[in-house]
Amino acid sequence: MKRCSWCGEDPLYVRYHDEQWGVPVYDDKELFAQLILEGAQAGLSWITILRKKEGYYRAFDGLTPEIMAHYQETKIQELLEDEGIVRNKLKIRAAVTNAQAYLKLTEEEGSFSNFLWSFVAQDGRESNFQSKKEPIVNSPESDKMSKELKKRGFKFVGSTICYAFMQAVGMVNDHDLDCFRYKEVARITK
């Protein structure tokens, strides 16, 4: 069975590729959680975050923005000591800031999902990815998403992070064209 070359053979990575990556997500809280995980990945490999994903859900109260938005300094210090997550002060503080920004955005817009999906067609878009020589790391859509999220107070949401997020939540189908999931995901998004 042919898969995208990036997922290698690690069982955790293969399961993520085969079951989750590129499948459209519309739930506000799931989208928020994925955005937090994508921000945590900055400068690291995605497999590092996959291995710590359960730790993130445990440490950050299920990645529930309504709880995270009210974290005090004592909780942030606890998180800095938690080996189950990436213990980067800027990323931890950004997660709290993003929870606060999420609450404000959903109060203003009504839906985080509708806001995020407004940057692409509601059923996602096909990739322009044709060659393994030059993978896409951003797009005009991710540039716009990044700019708007930053304007609304979000942190660790550069265009590259937003593009990886868009790939993960099915806003773009970037499975290799010869990957068995490419056609499956394309059918889901139609």
Q: Which SSEs are present, and which pair or pack?
A:
Layout: H1 11-19, H2 28-41, H3 46-59, H4 65-68, H5 73-81, H6 89-109, H7 112-117, E1 125-126, H8 140-151, H9 159-168, E2 172-173, H10 180-188
Parallel strand pairs: 1-2
Helix pairs in contact: 2-3, 2-6, 2-9, 8-9
Describe it.
The protein is mostly helical. It has one domain: Endonuclease III, domain 1. The protein has ten helices and two strands, in the order αααααααβααβα. The two termini are 23 Å apart. The mean pLDDT is 93.
Features:
mainly alpha, 190 residues, Endonuclease III, domain 1
Helix content: 55-70%
Spans of 5+ residues with little confidence (pLDDT < 50)?
A: none
Helix tally equals 10
In the sheet with the most strands, the strands line up as 1-2
C-alpha geometry: globular
Distance between the termini: 23 Å
Mean pLDDT: 93
Supply the helix-strand structural class. mainly alpha
Domain count: the total is 1
